[in-house]
Specification:
single chain, about 325 residues, mainly alpha, Rossmann fold, Tyrosyl-Transfer RNA Synthetase, 2 domains, two-stranded parallel ribbon, 5 strands, binds tryptophanyl-5'AMP
Length: about 325
């Protein structure tokens, strides 16, 4: 069976971008008998950008409750918390030792931090932690540990999957025979109509831009947030361009093809922004309304969430422990014989 794996960093409240770009396609894929799926809460990754323990804790709870509320079946998938798998940081070390620094210099997240520093006339590496620099190596360990074939992610993560491939390849080349490679080389999977969902201000929806629409807001708050989506000044009756509109882009991510065609026509006919936003609210609310109730219920029972995570960790470690034994042996640090 093909293995599918993906993770979400536990620093914020899940938003429509995470849902459309990662959670929804992952849960859909998990229902197919073609795949064996692994979904996890990337809480070690959270520590790279968040040093507020209460926030990491709360976010872990919210993200776990989100996946469960959306109908993730933990009997057929492996759903776990990254930090419960003690073998992951160990594998990360092995990969650190085969990964060239030059490759990491090219990572987008690191380069963005350096560019921002230089622009402000600061030292290039100011406030860059080893955590940020090593981010793609930790991610490679997540992926290679479980032999993932496919990694569904948003566009922003493609580079990291390629880097994981690179590190896996290098490990195989150095430590394994051609016939028996230990590392499975992963491929990224990006849904094409939803690759990067836009946020309130038209930029990519992202925790770091503060422009998100959280997934499980109350109905009232959801409508309020949708009303804040930036639009141009065209009045009702004036034709609007769907292809530059965030309202339309989000519509497309939730609508059927027929509904999208219909909205396109309404834009051409000069639908008013208020009306379009009301329709968008109804569309989203219909898709997530039921899950919202389950989510609120789960959030009041954290011990039940924890139980699910423990079950997942046990399943995951049935694979990670033997995998790590093989890796230790391959590099020459297993017990003496
Ligand atoms: P993170 O937590 O930033 O985002 C989780 C997933 O959501 C996708 N995403 C989006 N997709 C579409 N539109 C958006 N506006 C949007 N915002 C976020 C992201 O592409 C991602 O797929 N490093 C990863 C987490 C991670 C991981 C892994 C993923 C750690 N280890 C191993 C896959 C495999 C991250 O920070 O994602």
């Amino acid at each position: 069976k093909q293995r599918v794996l993906t993770g979400i960093t536990t620093t914020g409240t899940p938003h429509l971008g995470n849902y459309v770009g990662a959670i929804r396609p992952a849960i859909e894929a998990s229902r197919s008998s073609e795949f064996e799926s692994f979904f996890f809460l990337a809480d070690y990754h959270a520590l790279i950008k968040c040093h507020d323990p209460a926030q990491v804790h709360q976010s872990t709870k919210e993200i776990a409750a989100t996946w469960l509320a959306l109908g993730l079946d933990t009997d057929i998938t492996t759903f776990y918390r990254q930090s419960d798998i003690r073998e992951i940081p160990e594998l990360m070390w092995m990969l650190n030792c085969v990964c060239s620094k030059g490759l990491m210099n090219r990572a987008h997240a690191y380069k963005a931090a350096v560019d921002a520093n230089l622009e402000e006339g600061e030292d290039a590496d100011k406030a860059v932690t080893m955590g940020l620099f090593n981010y793609p190596v930790l991610m490679a360990a997540d992926i290679l540990m479980f032999g993932a074939h496919k990694v569904p992610v948003g566009k922003d993560q493609i580079q990291h999957i390629e880097m994981a491939r690179d590190m896996g390849q290098r490990f195989n080349h150095i430590f394994c025979s051609k016939k028996n490679p230990l590392m499975t080389l992963p491929e990224h999977v990006v849904g094409d109509n939803v690759a990067v969902l836009q946020g309130l201000d038209g930029r990519k929806m992202s925790k770091s831009y503060g422009n998100t629409i959280p997934l499980f807001l109350s109905e009232k708050q959801l409508q309020k947030h949708i009303n804040k989506i930036k639009t141009n000044l065209l009045e009702p009756g004036e034709a609007k361009d769907p292809d530059t509109s965030t309202v339309f882009q989000i519509w497309q991510a939730f609508a059927s093809e027929a509904q999208t065609a219909e909205m396109r026509q309404q834009f051409a006919d000069g639908i008013g922004w208020g009306d379009a936003k009301k329709q968008l609210f109804a569309l989203i609310n219909e898709e997530i309304g039921e899950a919202r109730e389950k989510y609120n219920d789960l959030m009041s029972r954290p011990q039940d969430i924890e139980e699910e995570l423990q079950k997942g960790a046990e399943k995951a470690r049935q694979l990670s422990v033997p995998m790590m034994e093989k890796v230790r042996e391959a590099v020459g640090i297993a017990g003496l014989k």
